[in-house]
Write a structure and sequence with these properties.
Number of domains of chain B: 2
Radius of gyration of chain A: 31 Å
Radius of gyration of chain B: 18 Å
Shape of chain A: elongated
Number of helices of chain B: 9
Largest sheet of chain B: 6 strands, mixed
Shape of chain B: globular
CATH architecture of the largest domain in chain B: 3-Layer(aba) Sandwich
Strand content of chain A: 5-15%
Helix content of chain B: 25-40%
Order of helices and strands of chain B: EEEHEEHEHHHEHEHEEHH
Oligomer: heterodimer
Distance between the termini of chain B: 34 Å
Structural class of chain A: alpha/beta
Strand order of the largest sheet of chain A: 2-1-3-4
CATH topology of the largest domain in chain B: Rossmann fold
Order of helices and strands of chain A: HHEHEHEHEHHHEEHHHHHHHHHH
Distance between the termini of chain A: 49 Å
Number of strands of chain B: 10
CATH superfamily of the largest domain in chain B: P-loop containing nucleotide triphosphate hydrolases
Number of helices of chain A: 18
Helix content of chain A: 55-70%
Largest interface: A-B, 23 and 32 residues
Number of strands of chain A: 6
Structural class of chain B: alpha/beta
Strand order of the largest sheet of chain B: 6-7-8-3-9-10
Chain lengths: ~425, ~240
């Protein structure tokens, strides 16, 4: 155990250098900074909705429509007696995202209960996600005008009736059923909640697994490249201890990284979503989510933690073996590429698919990758598929034990010094 | 006198390449024994096997009576190996490196400090010992590594090309330190293709080429046998 701590301390000193710590903090800060900027810009767009009206009718009705928009938090830029081209030119210089042209004869047509054609010009200034949020402003204004006019028609034609009932005769009470549980909640709320809970983890886990693997493979390769490995192997320390100390140090640094990234990424998500991430504290929503089994219990959190921990161990042991093949740090990066692919594959598939429902061949291929299981665990736990999570954990344990024995054998034999991959083709 | 090292018919192959074809020699306690030969002769392979890094393909090896195949863990406690072109951890200071390596040889903090103090004295790096190894010259790193190799007072020090790539002053200092090692009955096994160095340092020499030992004896015996003026001439004749 003493030798383990001697090695562990050295590994930590080697790994926790400024070259590692500064980029780690920078990534977290950049995440947070980007989230803040997006949040501020999103709020700006949401706070004030600017719309330009070219009123070619200039009657009481058209003025009422404009006034209605102003009452409903639209900042209206009003033009009369101008050409559409001239107004569009003006609009291009302002924050307004669109022009609604109220044609001449508008009041007359509305008064006659005829449908009225309105020209709507959508000014697209950029194609970013935040920019596209503003592109909907014209439609929001048009929907408000539609509502106002339909209320006007209905009030005139069907007096004494509750207009909200007339316009929306169905009151829908949503229920969601998951497994054998049913609760009164809308599917959008459920999907939104589950996505918010499962969004953060895979991204952070993805980064951490790749980073931890790269750190370890580079650490072993550096020992070979800097000719320190031979000295280390000749001192009275068990090769198993050497393997575990290297893995533990890389795992701990990866864990630290996970925490830093998690904090950074949380700020990023808060920025994007315009406030704290949704949780289960709302009384009605919380109860419904609990009824559906969507609030993880302590044992379920432990299962989730265990599968994450095992997947990190699996990538570490594979990285250690890859490092044993490396001659130097440059070749180590090449050896890490297949591992990165194995982490990316389940990560992207789980983002878009339920792996349990794809064809059996692909499903079992994905199951065979030990890093798939933590990505699938949270959705499986939400859907009460505990047996899949358990099987995954057992598989990860077996996988780790097999490969850690292999790593210990490699480090205990000549192979650690003599083994290398041959990239050149045989002639 | 007690045998520090007994090598019997030692063999090693890498695939089809036979690096050692059955070499045998003995090293007494208090003796400096050198393996000399050209690049690829099998010197480093022999030293790596004796340092417990590689497993022998055939034959046997005993260090202070312990069998290398079965008792490698015990052997590592009283041997020390300085590989050719060995490096040290660039992010550690010289002192940090010595402290780290000393930790494997003793659980006792006081003894660990003594090891580091011994090494500090041997390497002569003084205040530079607290700088990061990344800032050291090749000579400084080699002196640090040699100090590391001998600070634990190993019963057998295995030194592969100990002065390789060093300037004259650094090489002389290191040779002096190697000479001092055997004063208290410790054995040194070293390899080099610098014949002058070997002649100056070694009590006995084995000439190895293509995995075979051609001659063993003191430098004087070998020079007399081959009627040569120095070991270089002996070597040229022996491997002809």
């Amino acid at each position: 155990m003493r030798n383990f701590f001697v090695l562990f301390q050295k590994e930590l000193r080697e790994l926790l250098t400024l070259q590692i710590l500064i980029p780690m903090l920078m990534v977290a800060l950049v995440f947070s900074f980007v989230g803040r900027i997006i949040g501020t810009e999103t709020k700006k767009i949401g706070a004030v909705q600017e719309i330009t009206i070219l009123d070619l009718d200039d009657t009481r009705t058209s003025r009422t429509v404009t006034g209605f928009l102003e009452e409903n938090k639209f900042r209206v830029a009003l033009y009369k007696d101008r050409t559409v081209e001239a107004v569009l030119e003006e609009t291009g210089k302002s924050q307004s995202r669109g022009v609604i042209v109220i044609p001449a004869g508008f009041e007359e047509n509305i008064g006659g209960y005829s449908s009225q054609e309105i020209q709507a010009y959508h000014v697209i200034q950029d194609f970013s996600i935040v920019g596209s949020m503003g592109a909907g402003e014209v439609n929001t204004a048009l929907n408000a005008i539609r509502d106002y006019l339909s209320d006007y028609y209905l009030a005139a034609r069907v007096p004494g009736v509750d207009l909200s009932v007339l316009k929306n005769p169905l009151v829908v009470k949503d229920y969601v059923r998951i497994g054998e549980s049913t609760a009164a909640i809308s599917p959008h709320e459920v999907i939104g909640f589950v996505q918010s809970q499962t969004m953060l983890l895979p991204v952070v886990l993805f980064i951490v697994m790749i980073y931890a693997g790269q750190m370890l493979v580079a650490s072993v390769a550096a020992e070979k490249e800097n000719k320190t490995l031979e000295t280390l192997l000749s001192v009275p320390v068990s090769r198993r201890v050497l393997v575990f100390a290297k893995m533990a140090a890389a795992g701990l640094v990866a864990l630290l990284m996970a925490v830093v990234y998690m904090v950074g990424f949380r700020y990023y998500m808060q920025g994007i979503m315009g406030g704290p991430l949704p949780d289960t504290t709302g009384v009605t929503t919380g109860t419904a989510l609990q009824e559906l089994g969507l609030v993880l219990t302590l044992p379920e959190y432990l299962l989730l933690g265990l599968t994450i921990f095992l997947s990190i161990l699996c990538i570490l042991v594979l990285a250690l073996i890859a490092g044993a093949f490396a001659e130097d740090q440059k070749s180590a990066q090449g050896l890490m590429a297949p591992l990165i692919f194995l982490v990316m594959l389940p990560y992207f598939l789980v983002l878009f698919l339920d792996i349990n429902n794809i064809s059996p061949v692909f499903k079992y291929l994905i199951y065979a990758v030990p890093f798939s299981h933590p990505f699938m665990a949270a959705p499986n736990l939400f859907l009460q598929r505990h047996e899949i999570v358990f099987s995954g954990i057992i598989y990860q344990m077996v996988f780790f034990l097999v490969f850690v024995s292999l790593a210990a054998r490699i480090f205990s034999s000549d192979r650690i010094l003599t083994m290398k991959l041959r990239w050149k083709r045989k002639r | 006198m007690q045998k520090a090292l007994v090598v019997e018919n030692l063999q090693k192959s890498y695939g089809r390449l036979a690096a050692l074809k059955g070499i045998s020699f003995k090293v007494k306690a208090g003796e400096i024994f050198a393996l000399i030969g050209p690049n690829g002769a099998g010197k480093t392979t022999a030293l790596r096997i004796i340092a417990t890094l590689l497993t022998p393909g055939g034959g046997d090896c005993y260090i202070y009576g312990l069998n290398l195949r079965r008792e490698g863990g015990k052997i590592r406690r009283f041997i020390s190996y300085l590989p050719e072109e060995a490096g040290a951890y660039k992010n550690l200071t010289g002192h940090g490196y010595l402290w780290f390596m000393a930790g494997f040889f003793t659980p006792d903090r006081k003894e660990r400090k003594e090891f580091v103090a011994t090494a500090s004295q041997i390497c002569g790096l003084k205040e530079r010992l607290h700088d990061k190894i990344g800032s050291y010259s090749k000579g400084m790193t080699r002196r640090l590594l040699l100090a590391r190799a001998v600070m634990t007072r190993p019963k057998l020090a295995i030194l592969d090309e100990p002065t390789s790539g060093l300037d004259v002053i650094n090489a002389l200092e290191i040779r002096d330190q190697i000479r001092e090692l055997t004063g208290s009955g410790r054995a040194v096994l070293l390899s080099s293709h610098n014949m002058l160095e070997i002649e100056y340092l070694s009590d006995r020499v084995a000439i190895i080429d293509k995995g075979i030992i051609h001659e063993t004896g003191t430098p004087e015996e070998l020079k007399e046998k081959y009627r040569a003026r120095n070991l270089e001439e002996v070597f040229a004749e022996a491997v002809k």
